[in-house]
Write a structure and sequence with these properties.
- The chain is α/β, with parallel strands linked by helices and 268 residues long.
- The radius of gyration is 20 Å and the shape is globular.
């Protein structure tokens, strides 16, 4: 079938700077290149007394489960597929989070039947998901970082591993990062405090770093898995962001969560 006559300005419109920018963004929308893997299996013992029947990522904040805020943040920058690893109260977690999943987002649920820690849990979930992305975006399901880090990670290219860090006035509760020329040197234990960089619990990792592991054992990402990688000569870039950070690990911090999200985006 013949097409009708072309408008004389049609080709010019295709080369308009705005049209070019739109096409470029559509061509670089995150796909299977990077898949978020959210660790939501912890017991949350310090906050369990407030919500004994709910796993920590399912605790309601501002009209939705805490993890729902993270999923919305990922959906806003174009992620359409995520892996969620749950353990403690797994069926409750799945039931509470499923209604909060943004439209168009596919979730692959992975159950952690025995506690594996953040490192072991990430390896287990990567393997059991059946996915083979170029990179995993590993995240903690009980902390939230504002700012534009998600845009950076969504459109990040190349095989370089990195973790996201933020400046904290008092690092005592979190421990701090030792960074030299933008590269991670070590994690320092929780100590007296003072200002410094903390780990935001967000890691951009080449697939092989998780999928190469033959055995799945209980281990910490921060104190075992990453130090092991560094000792083996691997390097991890530290992406520093200036953004508000919330970890609902204690009752005191949970009390701040409503006002935190109200100041960030407003309540739904």
């Amino acid at each position: 079938m013949e097409s009708g006559p072309r408008h004389p300005g049609a080709d010019q419109d295709l080369h308009h700077p705005a049209a070019v920018e739109i096409r470029q963004r559509l061509m670089t929308v995150p796909t299977a290149e990077t898949v978020p893997l959210i660790l939501a299996g912890g017991r949350g013992t310090r906050i369990a007394g407030l919500f004994p029947s709910l796993p920590k990522p399912a605790i309601p904040v501002g009209g939705r489960p805490f993890l729902g805020w993270i999923l919305s943040q990922l959906a806003e920058v174009g992620f359409t597929k995520v892996v969620i690893s749950g353990g403690h109260l797994y069926n409750v977690l799945k039931a509470e989070i499923t209604p909060a999943v943004p439209a168009g987002m596919e979730v692959r649920w992975i159950e952690e039947t025995v506690p594996l820690g953040t490192g072991g849990g990430a390896i287990h979930a990567a393997r059991e998901s059946g996915l083979q992305p170029a990179h995993w975006l590993v995240m903690n399901g009980d902390s939230y970082l504002g700012g534009d880090w998600s845009v950076r990670m969504a459109f990040k290219k190349g095989g370089e591993a990195c973790l996201v860090a933020c400046q904290m006035a008092d690092t005592g509760r979190y421990g701090r990062l030792e960074v030299v020329d933008g590269w991670l040197e070590s994690f320092q234990e929780k100590q007296a405090g003072g200002p410094g960089l903390i780990n935001a619990g967000i890691y951009f990792l080449p697939r092989i770093w998780l999928n190469e592991n033959v055995k799945v054992i209980s281990q910490s990402m921060e104190t075992e898995l990453i130090p092991g990688w560094l000792a083996a000569g691997r390097t991890i870039r530290v992406e520093q962001v200036e953004a508000p950070f919330l970890d609902i690990g204690t009752p005191e911090d949970f009390q701040k969560s409503e006002s935190f999200f109200l100041s960030q985006k407003g309540m739904p």
